[in-house]
Amino acid sequence: MMRTLDRLFELSTRSLAQRTSRRSLLASLGQLLTGAALLPLLPIDRSSRANAAEAPPGPESPENCQYWKYCAIDGYLCSCCGGSSTSCPPGTSSSPITWIGTCHNPGDKRDYIVSYNDCCGKTSCGNCECNRNEREKPMYRPSRNNDLNWCMANADANYHCTVSVILGVAEK
Amino acid sequence: MRVPHALSALLPCLLLTAGAAAATPPPLPAEHLTVEQLPAQTPHWVYIYDDAFANEIDARIYLFDGDSFRRLGQIGAGFDPAYNLSPDGATTVVATTYFARGSRGTRTDVVEFTDNRTLSVSGEIVLPPKRAQTSPSLFLVAYSSDAHFLYVSYVTPEASFGVLDPLHRTVLSEIDTAGCMLVIPSGPNRVSSICESGRLLTVTLDAQGREASRTMSAAFFDPDKDPVFVQGVRTPEGYAFLSFLGEVHAIDFRGAQPVFLPPWSLMSVAEKGHWRPGAEQVWALHRGLGRLYVPMHQGGEGTHKDGGTEIWVFDIASHRRLARWPVQAQGLSRVVAVEVSQDAAPILFATTERADLAVFDALSGHLRHLEKHIAQTPWMLLIP
After folding, report:
1. Between A and B, how many CB-CB pairs are < 8 A?
2. ipTM of the complex
């Protein structure tokens, strides 16, 4: 599955992470310059320091929406839901029918055909929403459409999250 | 008299308390619990689709008043639903899915009818478990012009549609569409579907809702180079569809066969390749004034679901652009859905990426109100 609003959430989350990081840098400088005794006077939310160690995953991470295999995904990343980019979370079932994308891997500069299988049987994961639409087409071209619930043919048709599985190198 | 020390200390407090009691207003009267009744419907009521994507089994439709800026009520909508309004605006129809154990278990697909005067469910029709579960569109559940038939798009992924009798609450038939999708109603007994090839299948029904005949048009767009969005708008002559690159494909559905009008572009030659439409609900039309409202953004391939940073306004007859309304300058994030009321003092409603609802004067573009976080994922709006 799919959707658009994730783009904002993803961007705003990254923006928040960036702000958090900057504030944490200020906190560190404050400690160095003024000493710990003056810290309570600094206009800094030091609770953000706890987040400083949790750097957001970069685009090389399957937990990041910008990961190259996700170029036509729409839904929740199974990597953030107890699975991985190629495995469904425990207790769910994989959809046998899918849509596909063609994604460019910057690592080896090849284009790959990627299958986006939904994982099914529990309600939506709600973590790491990701919507990208390279070469995505409307539902009347279903094999390229990420709006349809691809759990539709499962015994338990509820949508949970989406994986991306390399099928092979795309022919030029 | 000698007053004990402790009592003397308390005395001023007691006196104060007595004085205060004398000045205390009478207690509030007992209250009576009631259920609110909706006021009379106005042209500025909007039905807001919330997919509740983070917990998708709990979708809902909110009724919001664009004059008082108040939420008036809610319709439950199950899992990944489709919705529409009856031609007279009196009924909201929701085609949805429920699982027997909430988030799991046997799937039941159903069409539910809600009386818009009370927001109570007035009936239902159980469907075969084939309903198309996808992003909202006008053409997933739709009434015939006389409301005698109701059509529901099926995808299993084989494509077909159901013909229902909403008066007698029965399923009449299932029509195989040979891979073509959507239920685009015209007249009392015709249904068209868009095919993967860019052609349009039109099925004519008999009085019992069974197939009487079918025709296939020539391709009216190129699905590889410039596919049309599935979010069409109703026009006085039929419907219009918008392509990813901003071509308007108007179709006259008044005759036995659809007639395709010459396409025209939203963008000038200089704007092509830079600006394009994009959203969940990509445009709205005021049929009386002939004004089109389209969320537009700057972007390339793969941005067709990105919301608009501007709303462009067009005269549909002359194809002339009347205005560009930048929305971010007014504190809005990108616009993902638009709908306009059909009265003489129209309101343009727009939902945003941040899930806010903007209420604009549709003639001037003046932002009258911004309702923060109207829903979780408000992807479609409908006004009778």
Report:
1. 122
2. 0.91
